[in-house]
Amino acid sequence: MNYEVWRLPFTGPINELPANELIIYREWFTGVMPDRMKLLNAAVSNTPGFGGWTGAATVESLEVVSDWLMRAVGSSAHVESISTNELVSMSWDVGLHMASVLIAQQGWQWQQYLVSRRIVDYGHMVVTAPNRTFRNTLRQANVIVDRIQEGRWESGDMLALYQRAVMEAAAPLN
Predict the structure, then answer these.
(1) Four-way CATH pick for 17-170: 3.40.50, 3.30.70, 1.10.287, 1.20.120
(2) The overall pTM is greater than 0.90
(3) How many CA atoms within 13 Å lie on the side-chain side of 168?
């Protein structure tokens, strides 16, 4: 599979970027999201067995995109034919879809996490619930790929991640 890779507007760790470059990153990120979603939608719908995929931000779509990612990543022997950049790009695009479901179904919003450089998500784009719970869905999707490769990911696991996020967002923060 040839999958178009993300082309970041910087090099080096995001949490070390100066404030002005973080602003550029945020603008770049929000600008590339629509194209990245189109790319994911085309990849999923062009995969045999996934022709009905529309990319709609529904809860039900999470299981479909999870199954697609499991097939795309496949076994570790298959993964050797996919570059690391392609794997990361596929996972990030799936992370964008996960975020789009939280936004469409739960009213979450994109936000750049700038609270503390000591937090691993500093500078990253995260989705935030009304109660300020947040998720870095791109990072979560990277973990999903790792679990698929290790054989520790099943079809319903992405729905479980979504349900956990919804439950945490419903709880009051201390």
Answers:
(1) 1.20.120
(2) yes
(3) 14
